[in-house]
Write a structure and sequence with these properties.
It is a single chain. This protein has 441 residues and is an alpha+beta fold. The protein has 15 helices and 23 strands. Bound molecules: uridine-diphosphate-2(N-acetylglucosaminyl) butyric acid. Uridine-diphosphate-2(N-acetylglucosaminyl) butyric acid is lined by residues 22-23, 26, 92-93, 116, 119-126, 162-166, 187, 189, 234, 305-306, 328-329, 361-363, 393-394, 421.
Amino acid sequence: MKKYIIKGGKKLSGTVKISGSKNVVLKAIVAACMTNETVTLENVPQISDVHYMLEMVKDFGGEIIQTQNTLKITVPEIKDIRLPLETAAKMRASSLFFAPFLLRNGSAEIPNPGGDRIGARRIDMHIDGLSKMGVSITTRDDGYFYASGDNIIGADYAFKKNTHTGTEQMILGAVMAKGETILSNCALEPEVDELIELLNLMGGNVKRENGRTIRIQGVEKLHGAKYTIKADRNEAVTFAIASALLGGSVWLTDVDSYLLREFIDEFRKAGGDVEENENHDLRFFITGKILPTNITTEIYPGFMTDWQGPWCVLMTQAEGESIIHETIYEDRFQYVYELKKMGAAIELFNPKVENPEEFYNFNYEDCTSETRHAIKIIGKVELTNAVLEMHDLRAGATVVLASLLAKGESVIYGIDQIERGYERFDERLKNLGADIEYINE
Ligand code: EPU
């Protein structure tokens, strides 16, 4: 069984390169499957989600050459339009294979995707949107979507709520459809724009107009291209908070501060600051007291849902009462039970919200009487060691941060979760001075 053993309290210092974004590379791999020419991706993080995605691509006929952080993907033909249940169900991004399968082979058999255990994570808008483009989609009781459509046609589609991968699904579907597609109320997440950039390099004609409107002229075929994945803003925030909590002398390289501006605004409200050097490396630090904050997670450009777990660890060290209100996923506070084992004073509650069906991005009807959408963190509390479990990727980063700070030796299980999205996390933390051991026995 894999585990981390962390002895907390060590100061961190040095330089860490922020990896390419997980939530871009997974979609770039799908885009690469839309052509029979080679697509080269650079700055690819070596994480298990990429590994699983490539396993599936190889299974249906893709040829992969991988050297360090560069990937060359060639898919001469798609030999199998059924994704394997077990691998595909591990990742939400696997649902994006509808487009290459349908556009190249006319049918697709895709399992209802999994991903992190943070909510119901439906794909109803994906299915609805693809149906408007002439794709026929049915389900059976085996957990698969069965899609067919030889003639995918452009359509006008308005998303009823923000959906990051839903927007990507429709862009991928439309890029080689017949005619024009106009998507409105699209997600503004920068990862979506990286997918657009890559598809356009491959010969696509995708334009973001007026922010939330995206206009796509279908092209007959796409060709090979080379694209460098930009930095992962979630990984950057994880290291930024690690630095702030443990000495403030860690430089983050290869990350654009613009992507982190909402985080930086809140970080300053919490008493922190950021220094940018001539190479645009960033150093996050807090010199005085950490101040309590009141955060509501939001769609881009707001404070990201993925940042709230690490932020909660920071707030355990603030003097006073902080609030985090999660509006994107209905069940993203599983880490709270772990932090409580370490002595954190956190209460789950449901804030009063007018019209919750509209206010929340998730489907309010998926909630039970047990679901809680906010937490109150009472600080400052000295965290102590515990035996901990990672419940999902960002919750994994959260418990690692808490253990790095805590007094004593913590043991963390569930390492597969962190390996999904953080390249060599333990090794990079160790290089910064953390006392962390990875054990696989
Ligand atoms: N939703 C629906 N129906 C849909 C689509 C979405 O109800 O058809 C709901 C979801 O259940 C969720 C909310 O809408 O409650 C937001 O979903 P969205 O589609 O915007 O996000 P996602 O595809 O689930 C991606 C990232 C997440 C990141 C969010 C927000 C990928 C593979 N995942 O998720 O990343 O938190 O956008 O930016 O791109 C992570 O990296 O750990 C992670 C969870």
